[in-house]
Amino acid sequence: MKVTTHTTTDTLTLVLDGELDASSAVVLDAELNKPEILNYRKVLVDCQRLSYISSAGLGVFISHLQRLQDSDVKLVFFNMQEKVFNVFEILGLDSLMNIVPTEQEAQAA
Question: Among the residues of 2-54, which ranges form H helices?
Fold first, then answer.
């Protein structure tokens, strides 16, 4: 999996491309662990090219969620493919995580 980042003054966008599994979760975890991430108001996760997510991939987001919330950083997912969304939904994470259909909605969240 490839993680590309784009930044504006108050927003960090992570573009995920490929499969987020145990081996690639390390790359995402390193991105979310960077101290400067707490300088943003929002972390947006573009899931348009995310074709698969494993429990290890979900665990990365869950493990960082509280730290981001404690620092008033919103984590918002957008452009999620249906099969990836179904994994979030089955596990009840759709009510824990902020998931919206479009980038415009993510920016407005």
Answer: 22-33
Q: Which fold has domain 2-108?
A: Transcription Regulator spoIIAA (3.30.750)
Look up tokens 């108001």; give the residue.
Answer: 41
Whole-angstrom distance, CA of residue 39 vs CA of residue 17: 24
pTM of the model: 0.95
pLDDT band at 76 (very low <50, low <70, confident <90, very high): very high
For the chain, what is the largest distance between any 2 Cα atoms, rounded to a whole number of angstroms?
Answer: 35
Report the distance separating Cα 9 and Cα 6, nearest Å.
10
Report how far residue 41's alpha carbon sits from residue 84's, in angstroms, rounded to the nearest whole number. 25
